[in-house]
Amino acid sequence: xxxxxxxxxxxxxxxxxxxxxxxxxxxxxxxxxxxxxxxxxxxxxxxxxxxxxxxxxxxxxxxxxxxxxxxxxxxxxxxxxxxxxxxxxxxxxxxxxxxxxxxxxxxxxxxxxxxxxxxxxxxxxxxxxxxxxxxxxxxxxxxxxxxxxxxxxxxxxxxxxxxxxxxxxxxxxxxxxxxxxxxxxxxxxxxxxxxxxxxxxxxxxxxxxxxxxxxxxxxxxxxxxxxxxxxxxxxxxxxxxxxxxxxxxxxxxxxxxxxxxxxxxxxxxxxxxxxxxxxxxxxxxxxxxxxxxxxxxxxxxxxxxxxxxxxxxxxxxxxxxxxxxxxxxxxxxxxxxxxxxxxxxxxxxxxxxxxxxxxxxxxxxxxxxxxxxxxxxxxxxxxxxxxxxxxxxxxxxxxxxxxxxxxxxxxxxxxxxxxxxxxx
Amino acid sequence: xxxxxxxxxxxxxxxxxxxxxxxxxxxxxxxxxxxxxxxxxxxxxxxxxxxxxxxxxxxxxxxxxxxxxxxxxxxxxxxxxxxxxxxxxxxxxxxxxxxxxxxxxxxxxxxxxxxxxxxxxxxxxxxxxxxxxxxxxxxxxxxxxxxxxxxxxxxxxxxxxxxxxxxxxxxxxxxxxxxxxxxxxxxxxxxxxxxxxxxxxxxxxxxxxxxxxxxxxxxxxxxxxxxxxxxxxxxxxxxxxxxxxxxxxxxxxxxxxxxxxxxxxxxxxxxxxxxxxxxxxxxxxxxxxxxxxxxxxxxxxxxxxxxxxxxxxxxxxxxxxxxxxxxxxxxxxxxxxxxxxxxxxxxxxxxxxxxxxxxxxxxxxxxxxxxxxxxxxxxxxxxxxxxxxxxxxxxxxxxxxxxxxxxxxxxxxxxxxxxxxxxxxxxxxxxxxxxxxxxxxxxxxxxxxxxxxxxxxxxxxxxxxx
Lengths: 424, 466
Fold this sequence. Notes:
The structure holds 2 protein chains of 2 kinds.
Chain A: H1 7-15, H2 25-28, E1 38-44, H3 51-70, E2 79-85, H4 90-102, E3 108-110, H5 115-128, E4 132-133, E5 150-151, H6 158-173, E6 176-182, H7 185-200, E7 204-211, E8 231-234, H8 241-252, E9 258-262, E10 283-286, H9 298-307, E11 314-315, E12 318-322, H10 325-345, H11 353-361, E13 365-366, E14 377-380, E15 385-388, E16 391-396, E17 399-405
Parallel strand pairs in A: 1-2, 1-3, 3-4, 4-5, 6-7, 6-8, 8-9, 9-10
Antiparallel strand pairs in A: 10-16, 11-12, 13-14, 14-15, 16-17
Chain B: H1 2-18, H2 29-36, H3 39-58, H4 62-68, E1 72-75, H5 83-103, H6 112-131, H7 136-139, H8 143-153, H9 168-182, H10 190-211, H11 214-219, H12 221-230, E2 235-238, E3 241-244, H13 249-253, H14 259-277, H15 281-286, H16 301-329, H17 336-343, H18 348-375, H19 400-433, H20 436-462
Antiparallel strand pairs in B: 1-3, 2-3
């Protein structure tokens, strides 16, 4: 097993690990005009409601940076991750972006997850002309609401994820769907994107049951589920999610319809938690399969090993510490896109930021590789959004087994913006 | 640059209005599992334990309490002479930490300063201070440097602290700290925290040189808090020697605090209670926010500040009413201020119980970060503690067994705190009013309040929160 990489060991690698490559540090980077590091500002949710994601985003980022440095860095220069906590707070997010550009001398900003923080920070990145690579899944990049300096090349957006589920649900699970979702923007996105996609397939949404976000008991909502429901689509989130599943199981007993959900509900939660027995046989969208599959790619195996995640999606040092596996690959892949973009544009410093944006915009195919362990992707330079395969897994014996992988075509939708027409 | 800032803020407002956050925290694991635990049963048992203590005490012979709180002499040895040196060492450490805050890693979970202030000092040290004894007397970072100045320059304090100020400024200093803890948008930001710490240290140092050591005794908030908590500790000095006794013996055997420190004790509990309440769905509902898309601390600065003040004011009010009502029940005409001086210290165990319960999960995680940072304070790749590559884990929030242990430990801290408080209040009353019966009657309103507060504390632990 490769020694686990933490931010500290990543730096050790930077400082001394190159000895393994039989070259001293000064020799390893001498072909670059300067050996000064490329500074990547990592906007991390270290505290606040995003901290669980932030911890794993940090771990993945450190592992990717260490790997890039072992391979000679970017354009012969080592990569330095400058992590700043944004408190999962939009206002602080904008301040952090500003610090990257004006205080820390970062070349780019990277890594933001929560949508409201992206939306709060991106305008400042645009004003400062700081390339801002988000890892958020939000549709806000491709919707055209942000700016030319904000890109999402390492993770797909929720609109493409949700609509790509409809063909499989319609063909394999049932044609009459009832949706249960939390009554705020997150749930509304699912309601709108999925119902449109399902109806386009010829399916029918029987009921849309909105649950107040602060609700902690759900039995009173279940009688609203129409009796002829064939598929129950749920995206409940928050501390009451285990209670929701437990009560759903108690309500239906063994005669439940097919159940389909998004792993967002249970990201970083053990699928064998009490109350979740009812999920046996149900289906989940996964951005990246948490459990190593029988046909696991060598790239996924390599990525797991470097990040320190075992075959069950947990930390190698604690099998109960479940990672945010469905999302965190986005940090790894985004850093590799930044590397590829900087190399393609011959990036040498902040003066080349515009060229970096253009180089990333020019990207199209991203083959399944060590740089893209989640799968092949296609980048749309006009909308600044990447598209890729989605996974549908079934809970079998307390683990998630992939039963369907969507095509990339299933995830595409018409462009809603052309950022390349905006000035740099 | 100003116009672009304004336009940035304006854009943010518009964007947030039309496109709210879609993602929420997935770290619901611990509280998800807590919601599946039979917390109603645990809560009932906890409240019953406190109520039973109240009843039991009424029938206990008066002498028993005095016996229970009788301290034992441990040693006559004193380490008093070491104080200036240990204080200087603490000052040196603080200076290094401030430097690290300004120049070390930007990540608050890697930088030693926030980890030291919020995990080691605020959670760990305060707990030790309240259980072991007055460690602050040795480790406060001002007495050593002040001693050094006096030893070599022998200045006379140029001014006299106006006595009418009392402990007012110390209470203001504590409230400022509580504001930083609960309302400041970024209390863990290393750079920001370093500036706060350095400013407060310099301010206090300068004012101590101007007004003499009285400034440290009356106007320095951390010292006030530390000395209040030390009264609860097992070890304490008495008649020139070190004694040990049941938690609270020092409250019974030492001269009661003046009104200022007594009020500060109530603020400790009020602040600790709000720090917990402000995470519940109930509170967020009250201020009209969706907990599943919490907009961050900077969006609730004023809500938190006002909530903090209201919680503290309400608790002072309730304490004043219950204590006074109890005294009147037995025909005692002691005034409100004197009543609070007598009985406020009895709630110290509750404040400590809340402190331990509230911060236990944080300590379990951030304690790991602190260890890692201690081993490699400047991200230089050092490993002074020989930890190897340590991955911080939160796996114990993911299994029912460990979550139950954590919850029951928290609940025990809350219940034990209330049991100790009820006993202590009764002992104070017995000492003052003689008979157990009169004491029990005088304590009835306060005891009822404490039973209610047990329910509140256990509800806080079990309530849905973000």
